Amino acid sequence: MKRRTILHGFGAASISALLSSSFITSSGARTMTNSQPSHLPDDDFESSQVQVEGNNIFIRRYGKGPAILMVHGFPRTSLMWRYLAPKFADDHTIICVDLRAYGQSGTPSSSDDHFPYSKRAMAKELVGVMDKLGFKTFTVVGHDRGGRVSYRMALDHPDNVDRLAVFDVIPISEAWNRSDARFARTYWPWILLSQQSPLPESYLRGAPTAAFENPFGHGSFGPDILEQYVMSYRDPVRVHGICEEYRAAATIDVEHDHADKQAKKQIQCPMLHLWAEGGPLDTFYAKDGGPLGICSQWAPLAQGHAMRGGHFFPEENPDDTASVLREFLKG
Protein backbone atom coordinates (compact mmCIF):
# COMPACT_ATOMS: atom_id res chain seq x y z
CA MET A 1 0.00 0.00 0.00
CA LYS A 2 1.28 3.49 -0.88
CA ARG A 3 1.65 5.88 2.01
CA ARG A 4 -0.69 8.62 0.82
CA THR A 5 -3.61 6.46 -0.28
CA ILE A 6 -5.59 6.54 2.97
CA LEU A 7 -5.57 10.33 3.05
CA HIS A 8 -6.29 10.79 -0.65
CA GLY A 9 -10.06 10.54 -0.34
CA PHE A 10 -10.43 13.19 2.35
CA GLY A 11 -10.04 16.76 1.11
CA ALA A 12 -11.22 20.16 2.21
CA ALA A 13 -14.88 19.28 1.68
CA SER A 14 -14.56 16.30 4.02
CA ILE A 15 -12.93 18.41 6.71
CA SER A 16 -15.62 21.07 6.37
CA ALA A 17 -18.33 18.45 6.80
CA LEU A 18 -16.62 17.04 9.89
CA LEU A 19 -16.25 20.45 11.47
CA SER A 20 -19.94 21.18 10.97
CA SER A 21 -20.96 18.00 12.80
CA SER A 22 -21.92 17.77 16.46
CA PHE A 23 -18.63 16.12 17.32
CA ILE A 24 -16.66 19.37 17.35
CA THR A 25 -17.60 22.43 19.35
CA SER A 26 -15.49 25.30 20.55
CA SER A 27 -15.42 27.47 23.62
CA GLY A 28 -13.24 30.02 25.30
CA ALA A 29 -9.82 28.61 26.11
CA ARG A 30 -8.84 28.40 29.76
CA THR A 31 -5.49 29.60 31.01
CA MET A 32 -3.08 26.80 31.95
CA THR A 33 -1.16 26.89 35.18
CA ASN A 34 2.04 24.99 35.97
CA SER A 35 1.02 24.14 39.52
CA GLN A 36 -0.26 20.68 40.37
CA PRO A 37 -3.58 20.67 42.25
CA SER A 38 -3.17 19.27 45.75
CA HIS A 39 -6.41 17.29 45.68
CA LEU A 40 -5.67 14.85 42.86
CA PRO A 41 -6.80 11.31 43.74
CA ASP A 42 -3.37 9.76 43.12
CA ASP A 43 -0.96 11.78 45.24
CA ASP A 44 0.93 8.59 46.20
CA PHE A 45 3.11 8.21 43.11
CA GLU A 46 6.67 9.00 42.09
CA SER A 47 7.30 10.98 38.93
CA SER A 48 10.48 11.09 36.89
CA GLN A 49 11.91 11.56 33.42
CA VAL A 50 13.52 8.54 31.74
CA GLN A 51 16.13 9.32 29.10
CA VAL A 52 16.07 6.86 26.21
CA GLU A 53 17.37 7.01 22.63
CA GLY A 54 17.44 10.76 22.21
CA ASN A 55 14.18 11.45 24.00
CA ASN A 56 12.83 11.75 27.51
CA ILE A 57 9.65 10.05 28.69
CA PHE A 58 7.73 11.27 31.72
CA ILE A 59 6.46 8.51 34.02
CA ARG A 60 4.24 8.16 37.06
CA ARG A 61 5.29 5.17 39.17
CA TYR A 62 3.18 3.35 41.75
CA GLY A 63 3.80 0.36 44.01
CA LYS A 64 6.20 -2.59 43.92
CA GLY A 65 6.20 -5.99 42.29
CA PRO A 66 5.78 -7.32 38.73
CA ALA A 67 5.50 -4.48 36.24
CA ILE A 68 2.44 -3.18 34.42
CA LEU A 69 3.01 -0.50 31.77
CA MET A 70 -0.05 1.74 31.15
CA VAL A 71 -0.21 3.78 27.93
CA HIS A 72 -2.80 6.51 27.42
CA GLY A 73 -4.50 7.68 24.22
CA PHE A 74 -5.77 10.90 22.63
CA PRO A 75 -6.47 13.43 24.03
CA ARG A 76 -5.30 12.31 27.47
CA THR A 77 -1.94 11.85 29.23
CA SER A 78 -0.71 9.46 31.92
CA LEU A 79 -3.09 11.30 34.24
CA MET A 80 -5.97 9.24 32.82
CA TRP A 81 -4.79 6.25 34.91
CA ARG A 82 -5.04 8.20 38.20
CA TYR A 83 -7.90 6.03 39.50
CA LEU A 84 -6.95 2.67 37.99
CA ALA A 85 -3.21 2.49 38.65
CA PRO A 86 -3.33 2.81 42.47
CA LYS A 87 -5.67 -0.21 42.64
CA PHE A 88 -2.75 -2.45 41.63
CA ALA A 89 -0.01 -0.78 43.65
CA ASP A 90 -0.14 -3.28 46.53
CA ASP A 91 1.34 -6.07 44.44
CA HIS A 92 2.57 -4.53 41.18
CA THR A 93 4.83 -1.77 39.96
CA ILE A 94 2.70 0.43 37.73
CA ILE A 95 4.46 2.61 35.17
CA CYS A 96 2.18 5.19 33.52
CA VAL A 97 3.87 7.04 30.68
CA ASP A 98 3.20 10.17 28.68
CA LEU A 99 3.57 9.25 25.01
CA ARG A 100 6.03 11.34 23.04
CA ALA A 101 4.60 14.81 22.36
CA TYR A 102 2.05 14.47 25.17
CA GLY A 103 2.14 15.86 28.69
CA GLN A 104 5.68 16.17 29.99
CA SER A 105 7.47 13.81 27.60
CA GLY A 106 9.82 15.01 24.88
CA THR A 107 8.74 15.77 21.32
CA PRO A 108 11.32 14.45 18.83
CA SER A 109 11.49 15.78 15.30
CA SER A 110 9.52 13.86 12.71
CA SER A 111 10.33 12.89 9.11
CA ASP A 112 8.62 12.88 5.74
CA ASP A 113 7.39 9.31 6.24
CA HIS A 114 6.24 10.07 9.83
CA PHE A 115 8.21 7.07 11.15
CA PRO A 116 9.30 8.76 14.42
CA TYR A 117 5.59 8.85 15.35
CA SER A 118 4.77 5.39 14.09
CA LYS A 119 3.52 2.85 16.59
CA ARG A 120 6.67 0.83 15.87
CA ALA A 121 8.96 3.68 16.95
CA MET A 122 6.82 4.55 19.97
CA ALA A 123 6.60 0.92 21.09
CA LYS A 124 10.37 0.48 20.83
CA GLU A 125 10.86 3.64 22.86
CA LEU A 126 8.64 2.37 25.68
CA VAL A 127 10.37 -1.02 25.72
CA GLY A 128 13.56 1.00 26.21
CA VAL A 129 11.96 2.90 29.08
CA MET A 130 10.98 -0.31 30.83
CA ASP A 131 14.48 -1.72 30.30
CA LYS A 132 16.00 1.41 31.86
CA LEU A 133 13.70 0.89 34.83
CA GLY A 134 14.88 -2.71 35.19
CA PHE A 135 11.89 -4.54 33.72
CA LYS A 136 12.77 -6.96 30.92
CA THR A 137 9.24 -8.38 30.84
CA PHE A 138 5.93 -6.78 31.81
CA THR A 139 2.21 -6.56 31.17
CA VAL A 140 1.17 -3.69 28.91
CA VAL A 141 -2.21 -1.97 29.11
CA GLY A 142 -3.11 0.53 26.39
CA HIS A 143 -6.12 2.71 25.68
CA ASP A 144 -7.01 4.34 22.35
CA ARG A 145 -3.73 5.40 20.63
CA GLY A 146 -1.88 3.75 23.49
CA GLY A 147 -3.71 0.53 22.72
CA ARG A 148 -2.27 0.58 19.23
CA VAL A 149 1.23 1.26 20.55
CA SER A 150 0.64 -1.69 22.87
CA TYR A 151 -0.44 -4.23 20.27
CA ARG A 152 2.47 -3.15 18.06
CA MET A 153 4.76 -3.72 21.05
CA ALA A 154 3.43 -7.25 21.48
CA LEU A 155 4.04 -7.95 17.77
CA ASP A 156 7.51 -6.41 17.58
CA HIS A 157 8.81 -7.31 21.05
CA PRO A 158 7.14 -10.60 22.04
CA ASP A 159 9.92 -11.51 24.49
CA ASN A 160 9.18 -8.39 26.54
CA VAL A 161 5.38 -8.51 26.73
CA ASP A 162 3.95 -11.17 29.07
CA ARG A 163 0.34 -10.08 28.74
CA LEU A 164 -1.49 -7.48 26.67
CA ALA A 165 -4.66 -5.52 27.46
CA VAL A 166 -6.11 -3.22 24.80
CA PHE A 167 -9.02 -0.88 25.55
CA ASP A 168 -11.57 0.36 22.98
CA VAL A 169 -9.53 -0.04 19.80
CA ILE A 170 -9.02 -2.48 16.96
CA PRO A 171 -5.84 -2.67 14.85
CA ILE A 172 -5.24 0.38 12.69
CA SER A 173 -5.44 -1.40 9.34
CA GLU A 174 -8.67 -3.15 10.35
CA ALA A 175 -10.29 0.19 11.19
CA TRP A 176 -9.22 1.84 7.94
CA ASN A 177 -10.28 -1.19 5.90
CA ARG A 178 -13.80 -0.81 7.29
CA SER A 179 -13.98 2.98 7.08
CA ASP A 180 -17.07 4.59 5.60
CA ALA A 181 -19.11 7.76 6.09
CA ARG A 182 -20.22 6.58 9.53
CA PHE A 183 -16.60 5.97 10.51
CA ALA A 184 -15.56 9.42 9.25
CA ARG A 185 -18.33 11.20 11.16
CA THR A 186 -17.58 9.31 14.37
CA TYR A 187 -13.79 9.02 14.43
CA TRP A 188 -13.19 12.63 13.49
CA PRO A 189 -9.59 12.80 14.82
CA TRP A 190 -8.50 10.10 12.35
CA ILE A 191 -9.65 12.21 9.43
CA LEU A 192 -8.90 15.71 10.66
CA LEU A 193 -5.57 15.22 12.41
CA SER A 194 -4.03 13.12 9.62
CA GLN A 195 -4.37 15.93 7.10
CA GLN A 196 -1.29 17.71 5.81
CA SER A 197 0.29 20.32 8.08
CA PRO A 198 -0.59 23.00 9.11
CA LEU A 199 -4.36 22.47 8.80
CA PRO A 200 -4.95 20.18 11.82
CA GLU A 201 -2.34 21.94 13.93
CA SER A 202 -4.17 25.21 13.36
CA TYR A 203 -7.48 23.73 14.52
CA LEU A 204 -6.02 22.17 17.68
CA ARG A 205 -4.12 25.30 18.66
CA GLY A 206 -7.04 27.56 17.82
CA ALA A 207 -9.49 25.70 20.08
CA PRO A 208 -7.40 23.62 22.51
CA THR A 209 -10.35 22.54 24.64
CA ALA A 210 -12.44 21.39 21.66
CA ALA A 211 -10.92 17.90 21.74
CA PHE A 212 -12.53 17.44 25.18
CA GLU A 213 -15.96 18.79 24.26
CA ASN A 214 -17.28 15.92 22.14
CA PRO A 215 -18.34 12.30 22.72
CA PHE A 216 -14.77 10.98 22.43
CA GLY A 217 -13.10 13.57 24.61
CA HIS A 218 -15.40 14.50 27.44
CA GLY A 219 -15.13 13.14 30.97
CA SER A 220 -16.52 13.66 34.43
CA PHE A 221 -13.38 15.42 35.70
CA GLY A 222 -13.28 19.02 36.89
CA PRO A 223 -11.46 22.05 35.49
CA ASP A 224 -8.21 21.26 37.32
CA ILE A 225 -7.81 17.93 35.49
CA LEU A 226 -8.89 19.48 32.20
CA GLU A 227 -6.25 22.19 32.55
CA GLN A 228 -3.54 19.56 32.86
CA TYR A 229 -4.79 17.68 29.82
CA VAL A 230 -5.08 20.82 27.71
CA MET A 231 -1.46 21.78 28.38
CA SER A 232 -0.28 19.66 25.43
CA TYR A 233 -2.55 21.55 23.03
CA ARG A 234 -1.16 24.96 23.90
CA ASP A 235 2.33 24.01 22.73
CA PRO A 236 2.73 24.19 18.92
CA VAL A 237 5.62 21.70 18.95
CA ARG A 238 3.56 19.14 20.87
CA VAL A 239 0.52 19.73 18.67
CA HIS A 240 2.62 18.99 15.59
CA GLY A 241 3.88 15.77 17.19
CA ILE A 242 0.34 14.68 18.05
CA CYS A 243 -0.75 15.27 14.46
CA GLU A 244 2.30 13.41 13.17
CA GLU A 245 1.16 10.34 15.09
CA TYR A 246 -2.19 10.52 13.30
CA ARG A 247 -0.43 10.93 9.96
CA ALA A 248 1.63 7.85 10.75
CA ALA A 249 -1.60 5.99 11.56
CA ALA A 250 -2.92 6.77 8.08
CA THR A 251 0.27 5.73 6.29
CA ILE A 252 3.27 3.86 7.66
CA ASP A 253 1.37 2.15 10.51
CA VAL A 254 -0.98 0.64 7.94
CA GLU A 255 2.01 -0.68 6.01
CA HIS A 256 3.40 -2.31 9.15
CA ASP A 257 0.05 -3.95 9.88
CA HIS A 258 -0.34 -5.22 6.33
CA ALA A 259 3.18 -6.67 6.32
CA ASP A 260 2.48 -8.57 9.54
CA LYS A 261 -0.85 -9.86 8.27
CA GLN A 262 0.69 -11.01 5.00
CA ALA A 263 3.40 -12.80 6.98
CA LYS A 264 0.71 -14.31 9.26
CA LYS A 265 2.42 -12.83 12.30
CA GLN A 266 0.25 -12.91 15.41
CA ILE A 267 0.27 -11.85 19.05
CA GLN A 268 1.09 -14.98 21.00
CA CYS A 269 0.69 -13.77 24.58
CA PRO A 270 -2.67 -13.73 26.40
CA MET A 271 -4.69 -10.68 25.39
CA LEU A 272 -7.59 -8.89 27.07
CA HIS A 273 -9.74 -6.74 24.80
CA LEU A 274 -12.32 -4.45 26.41
CA TRP A 275 -14.49 -1.86 24.68
CA ALA A 276 -17.23 0.62 25.52
CA GLU A 277 -20.71 -0.84 25.86
CA GLY A 278 -22.99 0.71 23.25
CA GLY A 279 -20.09 2.56 21.64
CA PRO A 280 -18.91 2.43 18.03
CA LEU A 281 -16.83 -0.73 18.45
CA ASP A 282 -19.77 -2.41 20.15
CA THR A 283 -22.13 -1.59 17.28
CA PHE A 284 -20.15 -1.09 14.05
CA TYR A 285 -18.64 -4.54 13.55
CA ALA A 286 -21.37 -7.09 14.25
CA LYS A 287 -20.85 -8.85 10.92
CA ASP A 288 -17.19 -9.39 11.85
CA GLY A 289 -18.02 -11.00 15.17
CA GLY A 290 -17.64 -7.67 16.96
CA PRO A 291 -14.32 -6.18 18.00
CA LEU A 292 -13.27 -9.44 19.64
CA GLY A 293 -13.82 -11.27 16.37
CA ILE A 294 -11.51 -8.82 14.63
CA CYS A 295 -8.83 -8.91 17.33
CA SER A 296 -8.90 -12.70 17.46
CA GLN A 297 -7.48 -12.71 13.94
CA TRP A 298 -4.41 -11.02 15.38
CA ALA A 299 -4.30 -12.64 18.81
CA PRO A 300 -5.57 -16.23 19.06
CA LEU A 301 -5.60 -16.02 22.86
CA ALA A 302 -7.77 -12.89 22.94
CA GLN A 303 -10.69 -12.65 25.35
CA GLY A 304 -12.90 -9.76 26.36
CA HIS A 305 -16.24 -7.99 26.44
CA ALA A 306 -17.94 -4.59 26.58
CA MET A 307 -17.61 -2.26 29.58
CA ARG A 308 -19.81 0.47 31.01
CA GLY A 309 -18.39 3.97 31.03
CA GLY A 310 -18.00 5.13 27.45
CA HIS A 311 -14.78 5.43 25.46
CA PHE A 312 -12.84 6.42 28.59
CA PHE A 313 -14.16 3.63 30.80
CA PRO A 314 -10.76 3.13 32.54
CA GLU A 315 -11.14 6.71 33.81
CA GLU A 316 -14.93 6.76 34.19
CA ASN A 317 -15.43 3.22 35.55
CA PRO A 318 -12.13 2.26 37.20
CA ASP A 319 -13.64 -0.19 39.72
CA ASP A 320 -15.10 -2.53 37.11
CA THR A 321 -12.06 -2.10 34.88
CA ALA A 322 -9.74 -3.04 37.74
CA SER A 323 -11.81 -6.09 38.58
CA VAL A 324 -11.70 -7.44 35.03
CA LEU A 325 -8.02 -6.61 34.61
CA ARG A 326 -7.09 -8.31 37.89
CA GLU A 327 -8.86 -11.52 36.84
CA PHE A 328 -6.96 -11.41 33.56
CA LEU A 329 -3.65 -11.05 35.39
CA LYS A 330 -4.43 -14.15 37.46
CA GLY A 331 -5.07 -16.33 34.40
Can you describe what's shown?
The chain is an alpha/beta fold. Helix content is 38%, strand content 15%. An 8-stranded mixed beta sheet has the order 1-2-4-3-5-6-7-8, with helices on both faces. Helix 4 links the parallel strand 5 (138-143) and strand 6. The longest helix has 14 residues, at 119-132. Mean pLDDT is 89; it is low at 1-40.
Question: Strand sequence of the main sheet, in spatial order?
Answer: 1-2-4-3-5-6-7-8
Structural class, by secondary structure, is: alpha/beta
Unreliable spans: 1-40
Radius of gyration: 18 Å
Mean pLDDT: 89
Instruction: Determine the fraction of residues in helical runs and give it as a percent range.
Output: 25-40%
Number of helix segments?
Answer: 15
H/E topology pattern: HHEEEEHEHEHHHHHHHEHHEHH
Distance between the termini: 38 Å
> What is the makeup of the main sheet?
8 strands, mixed
Shape descriptor reads globular
Query: Would you count the extended β strands for me?
Result: 8
- What percentage of amino acids are in beta strands? 15-25%
Helices and strands in order, then pairings?
Layout: H1 5-8, H2 12-19, E1 46-52, E2 55-62, E3 67-71, E4 93-97, H3 119-132, E5 138-143, H4 145-156, E6 161-167, H5 172-177, H6 181-186, H7 188-192, H8 199-206, H9 223-230, H10 236-249, H11 252-262, E7 271-276, H12 280-284, H13 290-296, E8 302-307, H14 313-316, H15 318-330
Parallel strand pairs: 3-4, 3-5, 5-6, 6-7, 7-8
Antiparallel strand pairs: 1-2, 2-4
Helix pairs in contact: 3-4, 8-10
